[in-house]
Specification:
The complex is a heterodimer of chains A (441) and B (411). Chain A is α+β, with helices and mostly antiparallel strands and 441 residues long. Chain A has 14 helices and twelve strands. Classes of the chains: A alpha+beta (441), B alpha+beta (411).
């Protein structure tokens, strides 16, 4: 029966080809715009570190130690801490895992000075690899003793290893970092958060995460003269700079973020309590001059606060959704007109014994077919849309790629769209009693 | 009128679909056009910079560790000035179309009780270097330009030159020169006396959605102190010399500051015209996208209304034939179909306006967009009505051509 309906549908489509093409095109344009917006939305939403980031929280507090008359209001939560505060939070061990992190960019070299490469990475205090879930391929992470003693050890990714030594497993080799030589104790495969989550206060504008090529313990890094990449807030007054870049003289600066991993809501509440009491104690002791407003932000909330997904992306998705809706109404209307014009065919079929259900199914097969055809047409259009997005000067341009998931979604969507728009017209056609339909005919 | 309204209620589906379609199109188009207008603001607003091809901008010159000392920036400025073909050089905290750093905030017109959010440009020869058009008062004096601030300089007192737009906003009574602007609302905030007014100077905040204050800028003389991200503006005598000077600027800055520049951030040397082009690329792209969407939305609607009305007319061939046989003229039929379309589309528009407003309210709440100005609504309505009439024209003409004999034909 189904293939009979299919043949019927094909025959009827051939009868008025321009109209059918118009329907298909309308559907395709609606679906393609929606798919383009959805692809980008999907690339920029969800977990930054799947499986890990839903449990990651960043600690924020107003840790300024001097009155600042140019900037007295605390309008945006600030995650920058002095190393001493970050150390205190990490060493308190009140969370399952905790680490203090700061983005860095530096030159890596072989000890003979023959090869060197620039690398982004993280300066860390605490078990960084475990907290972020970075899987090691060779070697190990640094120990608490190594961290405490400021031992010059570093964990790098295979990218840096290849650049410097031409192979993956370089555990035990030495690299130059800043003014000192560091021993490589671990190597991991290239790793990055899907979306930007670290140093968001200063990374405004970038949405996609970047490769983190190395992890280095904070003390050893500073001792070697390798500091944070982005600006630290160093306080004002006298001849001291307020903002500085890539300096290792950060003793008086707020430059590092404390991240904790908390698995249950109860743990979150308890940590919030702890954080608040820590910050308040510092305020009461006179160190933090402003009320500290200590807060704990989940990764998702933190990203939302800093607009990691640009508002444009959301707006475009809504625009595309509205547009698809308009196309659906449009196609439904045109289909209704098309079906009702052929009421006489239906009347004859009904008189010959076809049930309402048969008529209904027959029309749904026809619209489903149209939907599928629209989906096929939407495929190149979506590809075109994504290509246009990639040409744009936006931070997420390279996320605009066609993926197999999108492909499946597109076809499901187009058939669903086809059936959805067909329901109303098909129902209209089979509603009239056969006698009346023959009379009309 | 009754013979037009009654059938609409008898066969509800067709008119309802048209109403729904028009309402949706209206809501989408209104909001898309509003967003488009917002994106257009920085593109069409004059930035105040004269002869953009003659201005060279060196930016993102970031020091490693401690910021450059003021004297070193001053020496660099002198070295740049010595390049042949250069007429004016300015070290600045930031420059228009360069949004790495934004200085600004709430300012208050002393004695006028007014306030505004304004951008602050700090630099020592900004009027000459940017080629701004002074419309009242004077440029900073040589003594004022020699100011060296201990801190950045935002909270210091001294002279200022502001834009006409900001002057109008802060001092609505028209007396501007000699008036005082307070920087921030704390008691010991800096106070700046207005010594000059320029026609335009665009602020370097590009992403803001409330664009009414895009021309609210003020300038302070001097070199910002302890400034970690200085920019240099260099003006040349002829546009033709710009490429050669650009090269010289690059080498001069490399020689003067290169040894302390941060690893990983490449300084940016560009002609202002190109910088402006690059900065406006994003809003321009958005304008293309939004105008494309609006156009397609309207096109789809026209096609939809046309198709539905075509069927609606065809279905009533006999009635039309009877009316013609009873003496109705072609123009009657034509006008009836047009009037009917006007009613249906009008209903859709009313619904669509409400929907557009609701969507805008929701967007305002979630995305800090500004309110949809009500002036959009009548324009949108008029546009949709015109499009509706356009869409109905061909079916209406077809209806009018129905010969009276159709009435007598048995189907």
């Amino acid at each position: 029966m189904f293939d009979y309906y299919l043949r019927l549908a094909l025959r009827r489509c051939r009868q008025n080809l321009p109209m059918v093409l118009l329907l298909m095109l309308t559907m395709a344009v609606g679906i393609a715009s929606c798919m383009t917006a959805m692809t980008i939305f999907r690339a920029l939403s969800g977990a930054a570190l799947p499986g890990v980031s839903p449990y990651l929280y960043v600690a924020t507090m107003d840790a300024r130690e001097a009155l600042d008359k140019d900037d007295p209001h605390y309008t945006k939560p600030d995650s920058l801490l002095k190393l001493s505060d970050a150390k205190a939070l990490v060493d308190a061990h009140r969370a399952a895992l905790q680490v203090a992190l700061s983005q860095s960019l530096t030159q890596f070299g072989t000890t003979d000075g023959r090869k060197s490469t620039q690398a982004y990475g993280l300066i860390a205090y605490g078990p960084a690899l475990q907290t972020l879930g970075v899987p090691l391929r060779y070697g190990r992470a640094w120990t608490a003793a190594e961290q405490a003693s400021g031992a010059p050890v570093v964990v790098i990714d295979t990218h840096v290893a290849h650049k410097l030594f031409g192979k993956d497993n370089v555990v035990g080799r030495s690299v130059t970092l800043g003014k000192r030589s560091f021993r490589v104790i671990g190597v991991y495969a290239p790793w990055k958060p899907r979306l930007q989550i670290f140093n968001l206060g200063q990374n405004a504008g970038s949405s996609l995460g970047q490769d983190e090529n190395f992890f280095v313990p904070a003390q050893a890094s500073l001792d070697a003269g390798v500091g944070p990449f982005s600006s630290g807030e160093c306080g004002k007054g006298g001849d001291t700079p307020m903002i500085s870049f890539q300096t290792a003289a950060v003793a008086r600066c707020r430059w590092i973020e404390a991240w904790v991993r908390l698995d249950t809501p109860a743990a979150v509440a308890a940590y919030r309590q702890f954080l608040s009491s820590y910050a308040n104690a510092q305020h009461d002791a006179g160190r933090f001059v402003y009320p500290p407003h200590a807060q704990l932000y989940g990764t998702q909330a933190w990203m939302a606060l800093h607009h990691v997904m640009p508002d444009d992306v959301n707006l475009n998705l809504m625009l595309a959704g509205g547009f698809l809706l308009l196309c659906l109404v449009n196609v439904a209307g045109l289909l209704a007109a098309r079906f009702l014009r052929r009421q006489s065919d239906v009347a004859i079929r009904r008189a010959l014994g076809a049930s309402k259900r048969d008529v209904f199914v027959q029309h749904l097969v026809e619209t489903g077919l149209l939907g599928l055809a629209g989906g096929v047409l939407a495929l190149p259009l979506t590809w075109l849309g994504l290509w246009i997005v990639r040409m744009q000067p936006v931070s997420y341009a390279r996320a605009a790629h066609f993926s197999p998931g999108v492909f499946v979604l597109l076809f499901v969507l187009s058939v669903a769209v086809g059936l959805l728009v067909g329901i109303l017209p098909a129902w209209r056609v089979c509603r009239l009693p056969p006698a009346l339909q023959i009379k009309i005919a | 009128m009754r013979h037009i309204i009654k059938p609409l209620f008898r066969h509800r589906m067709m008119p309802l679909l048209v109403v729904l379609q028009v309402a949706l199109a209206c809501a989408i188009a209104c909001n898309a056009l509003f967003l488009l207008q917002q994106k257009l603001v920085p593109i069409v607003t004059p930035d105040g910079v004269g002869h953009p091809a003659r201005l060279i901008v060196a930016s993102r010159i970031v020091p490693r560790g401690a910021p450059w000392s003021t004297s070193r920036l001053y020496e660099t400025e002198q070295a740049l000035h010595a390049i042949p073909g250069v007429t004016s050089v300015s070290v600045a905290a930031s420059l228009p179309m360069e949004d790495n750093v934004r200085v600004g905030g709430q300012v208050f017109g002393q004695g006028a009780g007014t306030k505004a959010n304004a951008a602050v440009y700090i630099g020592d020869h900004l009027v000459d270097t940017l080629g701004l058009q002074l419309v009242a008062g004077r440029d900073f004096s040589a003594a004022e330009q020699a100011t060296r601030y201990k801190n950045i300089g935002v909270s210091n007192s001294g002279p200022t030159i502001i834009t006409q737009a900001l002057a109008r906003r802060l001092f609505p009574d028209g007396h501007v020169l000699g008036r005082v602007i307070r920087i921030g609302d704390i008691p010991d905030a800096g106070r700046r006396t207005v010594v000059g007014v320029v026609a335009h100077l665009m602020r370097n905040v590009m992403s803001q959605d409330d664009r009414s204050d895009i021309d609210y800028s003020m300038m302070f003389p001097g070199i910002p102190g302890h400034w970690a991200m200085p920019s240099f503006g260099v003006r040349v005598t002829h546009a033709a010399m710009a490429p050669a000077v650009l090269k010289a600027v690059k080498t001069t800055i490399q020689q003067a500051l290169g040894s302390d520049i941060v690893v990983g951030i490449e300084p940016n040397y560009q002609r202002y015209a190109e910088l402006r082009d690059a900065m406006l690329a994003r809003p321009r792209a958005a304008v293309w996208l939004l105008s494309g969407v609006s156009l397609i939305v309207l096109l789809v609607t026209v096609v939809g209304v046309m198709g539905l009305t075509g069927y609606w007319v065809q279905q009533r061939m006999r009635q039309i034939g009877i009316r013609r046989a009873l003496g109705a003229q072609r123009s009657h039929i034509l006008h009836d179909v047009q009037l009917e379309n006007l009613l249906v589309v009008g209903t859709g528009i009313l619904l669509g306006m409400a929907l557009a407003y609701a969507v805008n309210l929701w967007l305002m709440h979630h995305y800090e967009l500004s309110r949809l100005p009500w002036t959009y609504l009548p324009y949108g309505a008029l546009l949709m009505l015109l499009l509706g009439q356009l869409a109905v024209l061909s079916p209406a003409l077809r209806a009018a051509r129905v010969p009276p004999v159709v009435a007598t034909r048995s189907v």
